[in-house]
Design goal:
InterPro entries: BchE-like (IPR051198), Cobalamin-bd (IPR006158), Elp3/MiaA/NifB-like_rSAM (IPR006638), Methylthiotransferase_CS (IPR020612), Methyltransferase_Class_B (IPR034466), rSAM (IPR007197), rSAM_horseshoe (IPR023404), rSAM_sf (IPR058240). This is Radical SAM protein. GO terms for molecular function: 4 iron, 4 sulfur cluster binding; catalytic activity; cobalamin binding; metal ion binding. This protein is α/β, with parallel strands linked by helices and 454 residues long. It folds into two domains: 132 residues, Rossmann fold, CATH 3.40.50.280; 295 residues, tm_1862 like domain (pyruvate-formate lyase- activating enzyme), CATH 3.80.30.20. It contains 17 helices and 14 strands. The strands form three sheets. The chain has a six-stranded parallel sheet, sandwiched between helices. A six-stranded parallel sheet has the order 7-10-11-12-13-14. Strands 8-9 form a two-stranded antiparallel ribbon. Helix 13 runs parallel beside helix 15. The protein is globular and about 65 Å long.
Length: 454
């Protein structure tokens, strides 16, 4: 029997990977295993938990984000030196195909499931092509279930994907380029059947927007939530959604009844002009002044809010960070994800900064490991990199220590009411704090803004 190794590389454990409560399994590799014929022996090697150890195989497949692509190249080199063919795929390979071809025997760009059986047949016939371009899959006819039996049992979260694509095309995000602007959805019944088959109680919907933005997508979400209640699945679950989900209170009530305890929402910035520059149209419409109302609506049904924010935008200042810090403490947002603006390959932001010569760390592929949302790799207008790092430290000190932390957790406890939801919020805040304390800039830059200009 031929042996296939599927590898999830990790160069450095940082950010979410520092806590088992914020690590997600490599679902994409499990999906590939699911469409691999039965005459292959498949194994997933996952560096989220254990360092890679070389194993013999007939064929190796490696996926990678931009921040881990150099580790993927390193592992690929080991197998190529041993005469074992390597296929590289994932979002980085899809965005920078020519670079990746220098380190692999074949590259899959796009959605791998659509071309994986063809690739395996070509390999068996000794006719492996250099490039395979996956088509965007019709999710109404979804491929076989992911091989969750091959994933590490130490993960807290079981993950499921029910849709692909995003119509919003924010400048800093590559999802639209990778998965398309159309919102493709699996049927509610298919999703519910898979949820019923999944082991464990904790589920993360890894859709970029589970609820979506149309009447059709909201109706599907409603059927999923009601189905989880009717089937008595008793899952506790997490989702990503957009700020406009707060407009449908009946839907959020159903989500809470079906077990939703946290929703990730991309607020991005408290600067209205910044939202426009990011093409964050739905946020612009609701407005920064409406953020608190959005949080209150989710809290009304006992759903915690994880707010995503980006700093390192043009013309930020000490005054902005002070105002931002006060907002975060008073907003009621239960968990704050603050990332540094990163022009990832495939985004409009990357293309713009490349054309304007604003990429400071641009010795590729070596510098890709800095593109991990916690390093300033670009030249921002009107604000120095040191100030961005100081601003990040200031904000995180504000929300994770002293009165700011106590005040936020009291607000969360009063809003969420149920003990398990409060406990989950506390655990995730501890994980985010640990991520900050292990960051590149934590010990290199001050944690206050000092006498910086207002």
């Amino acid at each position: 029997m031929k042996k296939l190794l599927l590898i999830n590389p990790v160069r450095k454990k940082s950010g979410y990977l520092l806590s088992r409560f914020t690590r997600f399994p490599p679902l994409g590799l499990a999906y590939l295993a699911g469409v691999t014929p039965d005459d292959w022996d498949v194994k997933i090697l996952d560096e989220n938990f254990d360092p890679f150890v070389f194993e013999e195989a007939d064929l190796v497949g490696i996926t990678a984000f931009t921040s881990s692509i150099n580790r993927a190249y390193e592992i690929s080199g080991m197998y190529k030196n041993a005469g074992i063919p390597v296929v590289l795929g994932g979002i980085h390979a899809s965005m920078i195909e020519d670079e990746v071809l220098n380190f692999a025997d074949a590259v899959v760009a796009g959605e791998c499931e659509s071309v994986w059986p063809e690739l395996l047949k070509d390999f068996e016939a000794g006719n492996l092509k250099r490039v395979y371009r996956g088509e965007r899959i019709d999710l109404s006819d979804y491929p076989p279930r992911p091989r969750r039996d091959l994933l590490d049992e130490r993960y807290v979260w079981q993950t499921i994907q029910t849709s692909r694509g995003c119509p919003f095309n924010c400048t800093f995000c590559s999802v639209t380029k990778y998965l398309g602007s159309g919102f493709r959805q699996r049927s509610a019944e298919d999703v519910l059947d898979e949820l019923e088959e999944m082991p464990g109680r904790y589920v993360a919907f890894v859709d970029d927007n589970l609820i979506g933005s149309t009447a059709e997508s909201r109706d599907r979400a409603r059927k999923i939530f009601q189905g989880m209640i009717d089937r008595k699945l008793k899952k506790r679950w997490w989702m990503q959604t957009s700020i406009n989900a707060a407009a449908d209170e009946d839907l959020l009530r159903l989500a809470a009844r079906s077990g939703c305890y946290t929703a990730f929402i991309g607020f991005e910035t408290i600067d209205q002009a910044g939202l426009k520059a990011m093409h964050k149209g739905v946020n612009v419409k609701i407005g920064v002044d409406g953020y608190k109302s959005v949080v209150n609506t989710f809290h009304k049904f006992g759903i915690g809010v994880m707010g995503g924010f980006i700093i390192g935008n043009d013309f930020e200042s000490a005054a902005y960070y002070r105002r931002f810090g006060e907002f975060l403490v008073k907003s009621g947002i239960d968990i704050c994800q603050i990332s540094i603006l990163t022009p990832l390959p495939g985004t409009d932001l990357y293309q713009k900064m490349k054309e304007e010569n604003k990429l400071v760390d641009n010795s590729f592929p070596k510098d890709w490991e800095k593109y991990r949302l916690s390093r300033v790799v670009h030249r921002a207008e009107g604000v120095e990199a040191d100030m961005i790092y100081r601003g990040d430290n200031y904000l995180k000190k504000k929300i994770y220590t002293g009165f700011g932390m106590i005040s936020r957790m009291i607000k969360s406890a009063l809003a969420l009411r149920r003990p398990f939801r409060i406990a989950g919020i506390l655990i995730l805040n501890r994980a985010m704090k640990r991520s900050w304390m292990k960051s590149y800039y934590y010990s290199r830059f001050p944690h206050d803004l000092g006498d910086a200009d207002e």
